[in-house]
Structure formats: C-alpha cells, structure tokens
Amino acid sequence: MAGLRLDGIGHRLLAPVDLTLAAGELVFLSGASGAGKSLLLRAIADLDPNTGEVWLNGEARSRMTPPDWRRRVGLLPAESCWWAESVGEHLPRARTAAATTPLVLDWLARLGFAPDVLSWSISRLSTGERQRLALVRLLAQEPEALLLDEATANLDPASRDRAEILIETYRQHAQAAVLWVSHDPEQRSRLSRGLDQRPGGRAFVIQDGHLEPES
Ligand SMILES: Nc1ncnc2c1ncn2[C@@H]1O[C@H](COP(=O)(O)OP(=O)(O)OP(=O)(O)O)[C@@H](O)[C@H]1O
C-alpha cells in the first residue's frame, strides 16, 4: 500500500504504535513537552534504538540501507545540523547557483532567498534562516514521506506562511505522507483545511506513553 505504515514502532517512553498514513496524507502530532514526540520521529527515521517495523509504499525499512531509508523518509529536526562551510555544499549538485536545479532555486525563492544564498557561510545564518534552508535541503532529497518536528517554530508569520505553502505544495505534488509535530492549534486548523480547501488532517497526541487520536 502507498504511504507510510508504522507497525509496532515504539521507544523507551512510548508503547508500540500502529499507524498508517496514506500517500499524500497530512497527520499532526502533539503532546506535552517531553512526551516523546521527537523521539517518535527519530525512531521512525531509525536514528535511535526502537522496536517494530516501518513500511514506505509497501517496502520494509529493514530491507533498505539506513542512508536510503533516511533519504526516502526525510526528517526535519527541530534544530538542524550543518557540517560544511557554505549553504550550497549541503544541497545535492548545488554548490553554485549555476549547478542548482531550477526546482531548488524556485524553492529558495519561495522562502525569500536569492540564489547567492548558496555561497553564504553557515556561521552567519540566523535561526529562522537555518530552519528555512534546512527545509529546502530536505526537499532537495525528494523524500517520499516527511517527518516534520516543529518545522516553522522559529519563523515570523510571513515566513511561516511561505514555508507552510511550500510543504503543502510538495506534499500534494509528491504525494508524500507527512507526519507533522506542531503545538500550534491555528497552524493545524489552517493546514488541515488544506490548499485545496478540503477538510482533513487527522491529529494524534502522545499522552502517558501512548499515541491516541486527539479529541
Ligand atoms: N538521548 C536521550 N537520553 C535520555 N533522555 C532523552 C534522550 N533524548 C530525549 N530524552 C528525553 O526523553 C523525553 C522525550 O524527549 P522528546 O525530545 O521526544 O520530547 P518532545 O515530546 O519532542 O518534547 P518538546 O515538545 O519539548 O520538543 C524528554 O524528557 C527528554 O529529556
């Protein structure tokens, strides 16, 4: 089946979870600080020890190499990690604007960046710039599912709106299942209406070590 299926995925604070996200479906995740939301996303990405299996479009995680899995199921952590000197070095085939795909340049523009951002040093980036650029870096890997941890938490309202539109456009275009940790009820209500104005958007909460549908 197309989409992302969690089959008994659990971690040290969370009882095993069974959850299926259809291709292109957006599902929200909330819960108190420290409830274990980030740990669940990390468990799905197989970054920490975890139980269970995850299926992407019918393919088992255990049958893929970890780098392959993490490219196909892209995690946007709350705090992004950068390892090279410049922004462009973090994007596939994109050290310079000339070598950058038009799609990535378009995404950068949608988030308010001119092509010269590729030459910017990582050390000069503001928190919000890091968050927006981490999103472009993630999408440039063309993931088939997205795990978003407070993807817009550091952004002003205008930047937040632009990031939401980009994520929604990608979700619909790529038919990517999206599991989105968000504490912001207004964001969830905005996004659950969707760009196509259809109602939708299931929401779950982690409470007392269990994942439950939000009432
Ligand atoms: N490597 C670790 N070793 C020990 N405890 C950890 C580790 N990583 C996370 N924790 C703890 O596990 C709990 C859940 O962490 P997690 O990051 O999943 O919380 P969260 O639900 O995402 O919270 P927030 O909304 O504050 O980001 C926290 O109490 C955290 O301190």
Automatic annotation (TrEMBL):
Transmembrane parts of this sequence: none
InterPro entries, A to Z: AAA+_ATPase (IPR003593), ABC_transporter-like_ATP-bd (IPR003439), P-loop_NTPase (IPR027417)
UniProt keyword NADP, yes or no: no
One MF term in the entry's GO annotations: ATP binding
Record Pfam families: ABC_tran
ABC transporter domain location: 4-207
Keywords assigned: ATP-binding, Nucleotide-binding
Domain of life: Bacteria
Gene3D superfamilies: P-loop containing nucleotide triphosphate hydrolases
Name under which the protein is recorded: ABC-type iron transport system FetAB ATPase subunit
